Amino acid sequence: MRVELLGVEPLTKAAFAPFGDVIEVEGAERRLINNGSTERFHDLARVEAEGTEARVLINIFRGQPFAAPIDITMMERHPFGSQAFIPLQGRPFLVVVAQDAAGKPGPLRAFLARSDQGVNYWRNVWHHPLLSLEQASDFLIVDRAGMEDNLEEYFFPDFICRIDTITDF
Ligand SMILES: NC(=O)N[C@@H](O)C(=O)O
Ligand code: NI
Q1: Which of 2, 74, 111, 150 could make an S-S bridge to 11, C-beta 3.0–4.6 Å?
Q2: ipTM for the whole complex
Q3: 2-163: which CATH number, 3.40.50.2000, 3.30.420.240, 2.60.120.480, 3.30.230.10?
Q4: Strands, E, within the chain: which ranges?
């Protein structure tokens, strides 16, 4: 089995732009509401919910922690909806994504999401299932429900991508 090393980049809107939204206060449009008592950071992510009887779903995922070295052996995507992950306990997490290459994941990219960042994968964007770090962590998930099966998985046939180190940028 071939092992390809995968480096980890800091999560920024610009770097993540081909894959979805970075949910963070930094750089957001800020509106003062509620008679000035509340700041609204406006329109942070594009939520997509397509298909029959489609609706937006909110879940909480409690992810068990991963520690380096982390072997990425598969990727998945959701053809009918976006999927957002917002950390509820202020811990960083790993995000692994890829653009599509003729129906399979292209080259992988890994990002370290800070504790004050969430991500929203757009519909049909290849990503790895939740990769919590340090300890079991809860995430608010904004997902899609509907009649169609919304999960497509791809298991690498003859290689793995290994994340050897997760540096804190
Ligand atoms: N299967 C499921 O609901 N979770 C994955 O989609 C994931 O991205 O973690
Ligand atoms: Ni997913």
Answers
A1: 111
A2: 0.95
A3: 2.60.120.480
A4: 2-5, 8-10, 20-23, 29-33, 38-42, 55-63, 65-66, 70-72, 74-77, 83-87, 93-101, 104-113, 118-121, 126-127, 131-133, 137-145, 152-155, 159-163
